[in-house]
Design a protein that fits this description.
This is Lycopene cyclase domain-containing protein. The protein has about 110 residues and is mainly α. The chain has one domain. It is built from three helices and two strands.
Amino acid sequence: MMAGWQYLAVLALCVAATLPLEFVLGARVYRRPRLLLATLAPVVVAFGAWDLFGYHRGDWWYSIRQTLGVRLLGMPVEEWLFFLVVPVCALLTFEVLGRRRGRRDR
């Protein structure tokens, strides 16, 4: 039963670990929702399509024991969330590191 929550727990930890980058270090990712959406949309479409294609071809599968069982277009909702959470965490990190590097380069 608990195994089904592991995927979501890892995603939540990723969000929790990078959230301070927005509010403490000023990444400004969440404060620009249109730009965030424009950045995430191609990622979700491209990787979602790739995953769906591979899943429906039988190249891989999703364990019912490791997910909650809620599916969207045949894929676990956790997989779709992965395509949102991981890029947002990467953007937060990139924004903070890029800003710090920009200060050093001046």
